[in-house]
Amino acid sequence: MRAESMASIDQNTQLNFLPDFRNLGVILRILVIVTLMTSVAAALKAYTLRDWLDALTVMTVLVAPVTILSLLALGIAGPALRRLDARAAVALVIAAELGICTLVIQLAYRGPFDVAPGGSARYWLFTTVATAFVLAYFNLRNRALSPAVTEARLQALQARIRPHFLFNSLNAVLSLMRAEPRRAETALEDLADLFRVLMADNRKLIPLSRELEICRQYLALEELRLGPRLKTDWRIGPGVDDALVPPLFLQPLLENAVYHGIEPSAEPGVVTLEVELRNDKLVIVLRNPYRGERRNQSGNRMALANIRERLLLHFDAEAELSTRGENGVFQATISLPYTREER
Amino acid sequence: MSAQKLRIAIADDEAPARSRLRDLLEDIAGMLPLELAGEAATGRELLELVQAEPADVVLLDIRMPEMDGLEVARHLQQLEDPPHVIFTTAYDDYALKAFELHAIDYLVKPIRLRRLHDALARSRSLTRLSLDVLHSLAPEPRTHLAVQERGKVVLIPVADIRFLRAELKYVTIRTAEREFLMEESLSRLEQELAESFVRIHRSCLVARAYIEAFEKDTGDGAESRWMVCLRGIGEKLPVSRRQQHVVKEFGRNAI
Q1: Which chain A residue is nearest to residue B23, measuring alpha carbons?
Q2: Beta carbons of B14 and A264 less than 8 Å apart
Q3: In this structure, is the dihedral angle defined by the CA atoms of residues A313, A314, A317 and A323, taken in order, positive or negative?
Q4: Å from B229 to nearest chain A CA?
Q5: Is cis: bond before B110, omega within 30 of 0?
């Protein structure tokens, strides 16, 4: 277990600021930036709307293929580039961009269009400026978000694990001390493990199997307290164990499920957890009974917002957390890209 | 008086919490004469318990399913000789401040032997809880109404009530099965239950969830008036002229 988490730390820390060019969110951002810059460049040449549209069309004929080829190339070379020193990576990316630009202009000259009247120098300049701008944007974004990761972690620390749970668990352990000392031992060990994870640096991704273990320990403690009122149904699909996930992204949701779904009722209730791989996505569905009661919902919203934020930080637009409550069932669905450690 | 054993009832939805209190009470029994009147896992069970097995002190968990401890304490005050209430809670910053303000007894879980001993030792000398204070601590509507019947306190789930009608100094509570009488003012109930009940008459509140239809009653010939039909009971209730807007709102599904 220890070795696994060390490996994930190594994989996480040695990267430069370059974004993951295979991430949909990153691709979209690049397309938007390039399109905006093209529009502005076209506007500088134009006096009328008509001129502008013409200039935009001419430029797009070149810029679009360059952008697409670049994204393909960066997508392929991305993981290698991200391990380089930042300066070397920037130089390589700009050189590659100029290469691709030249290639496209050459190909276009052979074609039917005279796409670059007045030579390719202006396009080289545009490509360099656009590339530098995109890289600068991701560098800034990376810096802007890094404190956010720390902040999110601290915030998470406070939002997660209700004090209510800690004190009730301690109380339950105390009640076991005399009659069942062995169960009390196990419970304290579970509690210690849970808090070890809570106090740890939680910025690095961990394998799903580890997160599921934390969840099991958490549920064992809740079962101690709630006895037969808490029933769980786990359906873990094949091949999901080594998927990388943010630590403690599932446990707070389980805690919500117990707090809002199980505790308010004297009758037994079931918390269902389904995990499966669906088209390269890890899909997690959590269900619990829900009575639409007015009980303090702010803890719930805080936990959800916190998990959303961390999913965004790690996976950008590719991860999603949605919730709905109907017919007495509350359901949270998380989908995130399936990645695992490279060996 | 002092030789008499202090009878104690425990109410907590978590079995380990009850067993911990039991252990502590056994330890205290050497210092303070006491005996266990019984244990309850819900507020309803506690009310039944203390009526069958009178208790001097109730150790009452605040967070319990179905009915929280504050509401249970309110219903306990309906008893002829209500037990002294000591609240127990794992963590609830906000409520505890209010408790201190009103000198309400509470213990924080995990409970220490010493604290429990002290709370029990002084319990005989304390005054009983005031209903108004309890009401102000738990301003959200009750989930149950408590009525006295033949010397017993009966709990009626608010969700089962079809209508409430003021009659002289009582309020009649009607469920699908039968009627109960309660000593409380209708206007106070109206305020508390405004979310789930609507006034159709100076003396009558009906449950929004059970309204089936409004009918025009032309029986007397002289003047027609609206009657409300409620699911689960045959009785129809008149809507007063002043409350006619309720019929319109119902037509717009606003109820």
Answers
A1: A175
A2: no
A3: negative
A4: 27
A5: yes
Q: What are phi and psi of A196, to 5 degrees?
A: -60, -45
From CA A62, how far away is CA A104, in angstroms rounded? 7
Q: Which residues of B26-64 are buried (b: 16+ CB within 10 A; e: fewer)?
A: eebeeeeebebbbbbbbbbbbbbbbeeeebbbbbbbbbb
CB of B175 within 8 Å of a chain A CB? The answer is no
Q: What is the pLDDT of residue A2?
A: 39
Alpha carbon distance B20, B169 (integer Å): 45
Q: How many CB atoms lie within 10 A of CB B69?
A: 25
**Percent of chain A that is helix, strand, coil (3-state, to 5):** 65, 15, 20
Q: Do B14 and A179 touch (CB under 8 A)?
A: no
Extract the tokens encoding B245. Answer: 């807007």
pLDDT of residue A322: 93
**Mean pLDDT value of segment B30-43:** 94
Whether B198 has a pLDDT exceeding 90, the answer reads yes
- Return the residue in B10, B12, B13, B142 with the most chain A beta carbons within 10 A, the one to mutate for interface testing: B13
Q: Does B16 touch chain A (CB under 8 A)?
A: yes
Q: Average model confidence (pLDDT) for chain A? A: 82
Residues B102 and B130: their CA atoms lie apart, in Å, by 9
Q: Which residues contact A230 (CB under 8 A, 6 or more apart)?
A: A219, A222, A223, A258, A262, A268, A269, A271
Q: What does the longest C-alpha to C-alpha distance in chain B come to?
A: 78
Which run of H or of E encompasses B26?
A: helix B15-28
* Residue closest to A98 by CA, chosen among A134, A125, A65: A125
Exposure string for A263-274, b = 16+ CB within 10 A, e = fewer: bbebeebebbbe
Chain B residues with beta carbon closer than 8 angstroms to that of A168 = 14, 17, 90, 109
Burial of B230 (0-12, 13-18, 19+ CB in 10 A): buried
- Is the minimum CB–CB distance between A265 and chain B shorter than 8 Å? yes
